[in-house]
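Q: My labmate handed me this sequence with no annotations at all. I'd like to see what the chain might look like in three dimensions before we decide whether it's worth expressing. Could you predict it?
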Amino acid sequence: MAFTLKKIDHVQLAAPKECEEAAREFFAGILGLVEVEKPEELKKRGGVWFEFGTFQLHIGVEEPFLPAKKAHPAFVVENIEELKTYLSEKQVAFTSDDNLPGASRIHLFDPFGNRLEFLEWK
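A: Here is what I predict for the chain of 122 residues:
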């Protein structure tokens, strides 16, 4: 092949119209992601973009909207036990799942019903 896939640039999750404030409260306010400016041409589509490390998470408006119940991004976490405590304090529900050998992981849903996975490799 004459091409090489190098990395994932971003992951996009769908959300309903007027999702921006709820997305900011959850992804920036609770998870600590940093909001990044969308290009001017894309702002009129709605949604909001976030960044962490060298990755971006885009929340894009989709109508009609249906949350992703099975498909999901998975975030590698350092100190998942602290994350669990923190989420409990913030009243964010999650389920623990130890079915992946070598990993401790949890699943939760964003404010729009999209599934998110957080895992720490042992």
